[in-house]
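Instructor's aside before we start: the two examples that follow are unrelated to each other. I chose them only because their records fit on one page, so don't look for a connection. First example below.
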Amino acid sequence: MVAPAVHAGAEPVFYSVTSDGVDSSALAKLDTRRVKAMLVAHFFGRPVPLARLREFCDSRGIALIEDCAHALFGMTDGRPVGAWGDFAIGSLTKFLPVPEAGCLASWRRPVNIALARQPLRAELKCAVDVLELGVRYRRMPGLNTLLSIAFSLKNAIRHQAQPQSDVPEPPFADVTEQFDSDYASSAPTRFARLVASATGWRRVRQRRCSNYAALARALGELRGLRVLYPELPESAAPYVMPVWVTDPEPRYRALRAAGCPVFRWEWLWPGTPLLPGDEGLGWSRHVFQLPCHQDLTEQDLDWLVATVTRVLSGAGAERPSVTVAATT
């Protein structure tokens, strides 16, 4: 969120976030005379109320940017997500089987941006990446074996062709240096757009909601873990299921070591202030994000619940069962 603003020469000003959204009363105490835009995110795919923030921004001449990277679906205060902001930004890669593609939209202002077409090499690479990922997770019935052999040969040839070096890469220092403005101004590949348009979006939403509910039921009574949002708002589709974990450091390392696809926002922007009432700092350590992806099978969910239970409760703990509701 911060890197593009800094890259554009703007000065970021931070505000506190809470599990319920943005504290409008705390915002009212800030000096906003030089503020040009406000970025508000629907964290975890749970839409936050925006009617008051819309009034706050309008009364001060501030453009509201609605960050829908985690919320491709949903309603908030009677409008679809993305309809409250002067501009809305989204990420298709977090919900759809594409390796790239973001979107910029507006219900209030025209969006006339000429995007550069990517070269043929990028088009081919996107197609290969999608197929290779599908083969890795056995999602290509009838072609998995043949394509896995082809991709293994490709990767072996690439590995031999790349020069080997014992010199470690320099530590990551400045995130703004990795912001690729040329790529950000490029159109998604035609293959990515084709896959996105061919994906059943209703199935994506329904399956994510079912998986989220199944995980919430199975892990809701686990000691040392608290599901941050046991219930989802109507029409929302979660990006992940966030859980608050006590004694997070050893448990996070243990889950990662066990192969659990869990992550958290543990990297903080340099100079991020400590603000009264801000829950974001606690999230960066304590909130683990568990997957509820639409293509997780019931066996995947069983394994996930068993692994989380074993790490948090010990190997001898009884494993909760997972029941996924049927969807169309």
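Example two begins here.
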Amino acid sequence: MNDHPSVETFRTSLGGQVYQIPLEVFPGFWAFVYLVLVDGYTVLIDTGSGYGNSNDHLEAGFNAASEIQGREISLASLSHVLITHGHIDHFGGLTYVRPRTQARLGIHELDRRILTNYEERRAVVSLDMERFLIEAGVSGSRLERLLDLYNISKGLFHSVAVDFTYESEGMRLGPFDFLHVPGHCAGHVVIRLHDILFSGDHVLEGISPHQAPERLTLSTGLGHYFQSLEALRPWAVQVRLTLGGHKKPVTDLPARLDAIRALHNDRLEEVLNFLGEPHTIAEVSRHLFGEVHGYNVLLALEEAGAHVEYLYQRGQLGIENLADLKNGSGPGQIWYRRQGTGRQD
């Protein structure tokens, strides 16, 4: 994406107008939100992060859409704000958007508390993240740095009220249909309007959406993600175009679902082979992704943890240092080994 990406326009099979608005949600990291005009609805799908230039880019996108429409469209014009999932690069802009609109705000039940009880949620997950990192084999100053990175942008948001949840509306709002696809996030939904699908981060072009272990948040994890990929297949054959929260549009959704599943299958096999000898999740992460830096260290650890957890849940891995964990007074690093390769006493 270039330094000044432009707003792109799309039209559904039944005349819905879609404006794809690019936002720099974190330095050097871009995302898309969508302004949708259809059947009297003026809908914003996701809001960006609210960080840095994100809000300015959101306003610039509305200005561009207004020029194309030949009439003013602003945050005050919105009828609804729909959040695809509870990750801050998709909902963080609500602290800017909410005071400027009377639009009804919707999210899935399983992500509702992220918006309405944000401070509580942040505190609880930070504790869970610390334990996960210790068990993954991270300690000392590196542990402190990663926890600081994890929290660095999260203090910008505060709790906001939610007007409705998708299940309370029967997973439908006017011409918009919702499908719950947990995995990448507990309350993730994809949204279908006629022959266009707004996929959030559930399906992206060219990359596999980030995975984290379910032990950090229930209804996430690789097992739920695989189930959600399959749940989307009946819709996939009806969709002409898939617009994600990042990357280019997907034009062949069934093929993209196959490619994502194949990538994870290969990664699971690689993890299983690597754990023929005992290793921590941190070592699995370095084996899979090499040396990474900054926030990518956390992402790599979570991704490795999701794959280790999936194999462990299904009995393909065991804990090598179980006796040490039993004798310890608190969380300690865990060494995993492929079942059937350890010493038989």
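The mean pLDDT is 95.
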